[in-house]
Recover the amino acids of this structure.
């Protein structure tokens, strides 16, 4: 997408986003609530029309809403409902019938961990099980490109790990995944590359590690003889450590709780998204 | 609803040929799913079927022996059934599916819009056809009304009534802000329309302006047409004006239904 824009009345939710997602990559859009992530993804999914810029999804303009394009993508919405009286197996069979080359329904039930609940009415499923059904419905058409909008919001840690495993297995199958999240660890755990988005703009883009490495300094922390926690930032951790340890040895002291940290994605994220 | 382009159709040489899902086949599948969901939802099945039939049974028993009154009652119930199986049922369904996010999810799949609505509409038509059949059979078996005097007119009125009320139901769903208020909105329309139409149809002494209102609404003309077809056996020719009123509402309803259609809840 190039210079993507979306305006709602006077409010411009997306203000010129440039992102190219490579095939086979897991790309994360990371940002606080209201950053324009969902709007961006929904333009790519064909739900909304852009007010400016150019977008190409698998070589097509999603605003045309071609059925051919929709056969090749899978969508996990932030909140998508399902008929109350349908069972996961029936829903998957029905959804599979929309696609020219669907995956085997039983296999998808296994992958989503829904085999035990396959014949239960959806209204009797738990929130986590419904979310797994969301995944399963997005996968059953065997799409090349999968959109995951806040896939684990509201999950407990265990369910989140399970969802992450599913995403990793999709990546292993060679699927391209665009996911939005406001959880740092999620972007860090899953994404090959991350774009940090705020107020409809991309603030930084790159692999999670490099984003951390590129932005700021090393952080050296220790507890001094008075028991105070001291934090120093430096571009030259070797030199600083030499200096600190030399002084400490000369005084015959220990540097209690000494740590040297590279800034994490979290530090970068907090720095970038802090209100200026 | 913006137009959607249907993808290129692969030729017989392509591996995808034959697996390509044809819109007609998908309409059928959607229809089958809608039927299954309908029967699994006891309250929908109750309001669609049992309520008008209980009404028919109760009023029919009360009027037993009064053939003149029974002749009026049966087409009134038939007209109300058309309205409840289409207008009421679709307004409920669309609002529920919209607010729950089912419509939005379906819109993200390759299911063609025409197949989706084809299946939904065919489901409503099936319910209406079942109801009218039951009412015709009950009229003959219990209420001393013979077979409909004019089958052709009956079918035309039912079809035009179904299309019009279905379109109006979908259009009306746009006005309903959330699922919790659906019953209030729907009944605020359904009950007064039924009441005024029944009253004017049944009473020759209704005040002129009340009659004018009822004649301008689609239900009273539908009951007139059904009455002619089921009881007196008059053909279509005698009720063309009634048919025109229903059809005009249908055109109006279709315009609003398509123009204002929303696939997702406005809350998100």
């Amino acid at each position: 997408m190039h210079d993507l824009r979306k305006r709602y009345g006077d409010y411009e939710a997306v203000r010129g986003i440039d992102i190219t997602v490579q095939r086979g990559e897991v790309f994360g859009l990371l940002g606080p609530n209201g950053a324009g992530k969902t709007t961006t993804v929904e333009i790519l999914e064909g739900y909304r029309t852009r007010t400016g810029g150019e977008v190409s999804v698998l070589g097509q303009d999603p605003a045309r809403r071609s059925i051919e394009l929709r056969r090749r993508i899978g969508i996990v919405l932030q909140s998508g409902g399902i008929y109350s009286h349908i069972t996961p197996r029936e829903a998957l069979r029905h959804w599979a019938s929309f696609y020219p080359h669907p995956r085997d329904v039983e296999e998808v039930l296994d992958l989503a961990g829904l085999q035990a609940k396959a014949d239960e009415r959806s209204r009797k499923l738990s929130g986590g099980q419904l979310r797994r059904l969301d995944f399963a419905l997005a996968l059953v058409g065997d799409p090349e490109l999968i959109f995951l909008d806040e896939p684990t919001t509201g999950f407990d840690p265990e369910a989140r790990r399970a969802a992450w495993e599913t995403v990793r297995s999709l990546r292993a199958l060679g699927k391209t995944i665009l996911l939005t999240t406001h959880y740092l660890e999620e972007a860090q755990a899953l994404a090959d590359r991350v774009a940090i988005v705020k107020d409809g703009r991309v603030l930084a883009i790159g692999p999670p590690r490099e984003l951390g490495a590129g932005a700021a300094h090393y952080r050296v922390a220790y507890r001094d003889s008075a028991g105070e926690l001291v934090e120093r930032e430096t571009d030259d951790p070797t030199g600083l450590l030499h200096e600190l340890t030399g002084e400490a040895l000369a005084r015959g002291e220990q540097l209690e709780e000494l740590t040297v940290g590279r800034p994490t994605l979290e530090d970068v994220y907090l720095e970038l998204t802090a209100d200026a | 609803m913006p137009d959607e382009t249907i993808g290129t159709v692969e030729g017989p040489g392509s591996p995808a040929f034959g697996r390509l899902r044809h819109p007609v086949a998908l309409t059928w599948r959607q229809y089958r799913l809608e039927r299954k969901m309908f029967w699994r939802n006891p309250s929908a099945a109750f309001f669609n079927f049992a309520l008008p039939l209980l009404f028919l049974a109760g009023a029919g028993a009360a009027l037993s022996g009064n053939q003149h009154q029974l002749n009026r009652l049966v087409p009134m119930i038939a007209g109300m059934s058309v309205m409840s199986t289409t207008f009421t049922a679709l307004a409920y369904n669309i609002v529920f599916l919209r607010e729950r996010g089912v419509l939005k999810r379906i819109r993200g799949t390759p299911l063609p819009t025409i197949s989706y609505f084809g299946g939904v509409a065919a489901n409503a038509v099936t319910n209406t056809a079942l109801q009218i059949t039951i009412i015709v059979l009950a009229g003959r078996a219990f209420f001393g009304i013979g077979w409909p005097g004019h089958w052709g007119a009956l079918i035309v009125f039912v079809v035009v009534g179904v299309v019009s009320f279905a379109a109006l139901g979908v259009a009306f769903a746009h006005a309903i802000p959330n699922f919790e208020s659906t019953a209030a909105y729907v009944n605020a329309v359904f009950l007064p329309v039924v009441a005024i139409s029944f009253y004017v149809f049944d009473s020759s002494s209704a005040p002129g302006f009340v009659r004018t209102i009822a004649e301008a609404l689609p239900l009273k003309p539908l009951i007139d047409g059904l009455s002619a077809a089921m009881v007196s056996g008059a053909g279509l020719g005698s009720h063309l004006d009634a048919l025109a009123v229903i059809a005009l509402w249908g055109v109006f309803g279709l315009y609003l239904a398509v123009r204002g259609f929303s696939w997702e809840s406005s809350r998100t």
In short: Chain A has two domains: 2-212, 216-262. Residues 112 and 132 of chain A are 6 Å apart (CA to CA). The mean pLDDT of chain A is 84.
